[in-house]
Amino acid sequence: MKQLELERFIAIIAAPKQVQKLSASDWEMLLWVLDTARLEAWLNAQLEPIGLKDSLPATVQTRLDSAMIYAERQQKQVRYECEIISSLLSEKRITPLFLKGAAYVISAEFNSAGRICSDIDALVKQDELDVAERQLKMNMWLSQDVDDYDDKYYREYAHEIPPMMQAERGTVLDLHHNLFLPVSGRAPKIEQFWATTTTNDNGLSTLKPAAALVHSMIHLLMNEEVTYGLRDCLDMQSIIDTHNSDSFWLEVSTLVVDNDFTYEYQLLLLLLDSLFGRETVKQQILAQQITADTKTRFWLWCYRKAVMPDHPHLCNRYAGVARAAVYCRGHSQKMPLATLLKHSTVKLYKAARKALVGEADKE
Amino acid sequence: MSINYLNLGLLQSNCLTLPTAAAQSAQLIYGDAPRQDISSFCVAVKPASLLRRFIKPIVEFESNFRIPFKPLPASQSYALLEWGLNWCLATGHFNHLLLHAAVLVKEGQAVLFPAMPGSGKSTLTAWLGLNGWSVYSDEMAVIDLHTGTVQPMYRPICLKNLSIDLIQKWSPDAILTPVCHDTAKGSVAHLKAHNWQEFSTFSPARIVGVVFPKYDASATEPQLYSVDKLQTFENFYTNAFNYHVLGQASFDILARVVNQIQGFEVHYASLDFMSDFLTDELLS
Amino acid sequence: MFAASVEMRPLADNSGIVLFDSCLNQTHLLRFTSDANHASTFSPPFTSDEFSVFFGAESGTLDVLVSRKLVIPFEH
């Protein structure tokens, strides 16, 4: 099967005007790979403002237009849903803070052109979580079907409740009280993030860009799955490029150091530099005199491969190994070993039981 | 034999792999179309698992290496491919408004036949296609969001059950794929309505009418009812594949089209009558 | 919020009007009727209060439609 070489793919993402040199079959592969990574509309958003789109093959323009129409429709829906959620929770005097994709779409602080956001992530205070959940349930937001163990996982170990789905519209909401699992021992001091709350012109609350960057970093480098990791990296690079200033970096450093994420922060900067090579990041690497020891070079190699879209048309050798390493690292970050062993045993047992006898009856 | 691409006119899909029988049917239907430079989709129909390749074989449809549906018996591979292509268009093509309707064109004017169960639409579509009308589409009307014209698509007509026998009787030379039995819709076969040479002459057509056909074998005389624009709009927008994604653009063009066309419900037993009715009442 | 986002298109055969709320991405159909007691709607049914709230009383949409006898609101 024909494939795009990884370095060529990364070069195109880093500098989209390189698409002018693509052949017809390269275009096919690029668009299908980007579709898997939810980045087709993103590419449209890079090419249109610089006047490159009109010179592209007609079929490519059609595909990019189609992706953009879908993305814009999604974004409209997200804005609406955030307003509804905010309005519902305000009846109980709770102000949700919207995170990641939803935040990028609803706040002018972030560049969200072409951004696809399928679920909505929101943060509430831990002591408000029960009231928030009840209020949403009374307004046709239903908890997704999870068994008792998974429910306990979410509530006891994790920093969120099971996902909720709006019964009529199918929108999925992930409601968190922290940005990482408390059971891990590495959950950040959430009050510090709350202190950066920004209320936008539309009345909706999001994190300040520095805090949003740190949250996205935690999400990428402390989780076991990085399915849309490339998109997350592009989000973070965009935040950096938009807000690059001494005060921004000071805010980032403060959050990172106070919450003991220095290693992840350095790894992130090295990763973004190796992918996109922007001056904004190089300057920070220089200023902080970041160097990569063997362990860091290993993880850099892993994440650089793991964040790439998993697609047969993208030649990404040893990606399976890289993803497996990231998977193990993510799990070990989330839970102390004893808890991880217990959790893994339960998950393995459930998976084996399902494979043998099908889905378990609801208890 | 393998067929690597499926040129639908409007766009093209790469075809990575098909079971042999389905590949032969695809070659029959699409084999005379030239290759476009760039494909918009890539699809495949392949065995669902190694085991099920041999024991009660089942196949699954892949679009961009993802599997959107449950598998079906291997005997339904070609039907699965066609349904899969419908899915690709409905979920991935937002450049046009896609309505669930057949489109028949004569003298540059298009009549839409919304998909209604028991309407005899497939038989009617096939018969009209064999009798001087151009079949722009059997199931999916492709509406331009700016002009409201309808674009042709190079797709076969999906015939079901009795209509397969009827078409074979009326037109023994008709190009038909082998029948897939026991599908969710019964027995299904696909009719190649036009060859590529004919299709190349089709250009966007102005919509002049919508007809809700109802086949009634007992009808001694055909019965005509006027369908008002509100009913027409309601039928179109509830049966559109991508109306909700397109939002205001689809609302605008649909209101414009509905305001410009006539709507009829026709209870008929005679296909000749239908052809005369369409020509006399709808074509200017 | 809602009133400003509603587009109306009267249908040429006077069978009704179609409305699109771009904020909620919803389509509504209103059938005209000569029956003074009710108007049927396809989706969803409205009382006059709901109509005012939904489309914004201050926009005057409902009043205009009622004064021109184009729509008779549906009373439960």
Task: Write a concise keyword list for the protein shown above.
heterotrimer, B: 284 residues, alpha+beta, 2 domains, 5-stranded mixed beta sheet, 10 helices, C: 76 residues, 22% strand, disordered C terminus, kinase activity (chain B), HprK-related kinase A (chain B), kinase (chain B), HprK-rel_A (chain B), P-loop_NTPase (chain B)
Helices and strands of chain B, in order, run as EEHEHEEHEEHEEEEHEEHEEHHHEH
Name the chain pair whose interface involves the most residues.
A-B, 19 and 20 residues
Structural class label of chain B: alpha+beta
How big a fraction of the residues of chain C is strand? Answer: 15-25%
Average residue-wise pLDDT of chain B = 93
Summarize the main sheet of chain B: 8 strands, mixed
Domain count of chain C: the total is 1
The 3D shape of chain B can be described as globular
Write structural notes for this entry.
Chain A: Keywords: Transferase. Chain A: GO terms for molecular function: transferase activity. Chain A: InterPro entries: NTP_transf_5. The complex is a heterotrimer of chains A (363), B (284) and C (76). Chain A is of the alpha/beta class and 363 residues long. In chain A, 58% of the residues lie in helices and 7% in strands. Chain A has a single domain, classed as Beta Polymerase, domain 2 (2-Layer Sandwich), CATH 3.30.460.40. In chain A, the strands form two sheets. Chain A has a seven-stranded mixed beta sheet with strand order 4-5-6-3-2-8-7. Chain A has a two-stranded parallel ribbon with strand order 1-9. In chain A, helix 9 (209-221) packs across helix 11 (246-258), helix 12 (262-276) runs antiparallel to helix 13 and helix 12 (262-276) packs across helix 14. Chain A is globular, with a radius of gyration of 21 Å. By secondary structure, chain B is α+β, with helices and mostly antiparallel strands. Chain B has ten helices and 16 strands. Chain B has helices spanning 20-30, 51-54, 77-92, 121-130, 162-170, 196-199, 229-238, 243-246, 248-260, 271-282; strands spanning 5-7, 12-15, 41-47, 58-63, 72-73, 96-106, 109-114, 134-137, 140-144, 150-151, 157-160, 180-183, 186-191, 206-215, 223-226, 262-268. In chain B, helix 1 crosses helix 3 (77-92), helix 4 (121-130) runs parallel beside helix 5 (162-170) and helix 7 (229-238) packs antiparallel against helix 9. The mean pLDDT of chain B is 93. Chain C is an alpha+beta fold and 76 residues long. Chain C has one domain (3-67). Chain C has a three-stranded antiparallel beta sheet, with no helix packed on it. Chain C is elongated, with a radius of gyration of 11 Å. The chains are: A alpha/beta (363), B alpha+beta (284), C alpha+beta (76). At the A-B interface, helix 2 and helix 4 of A face helix 8 of B.
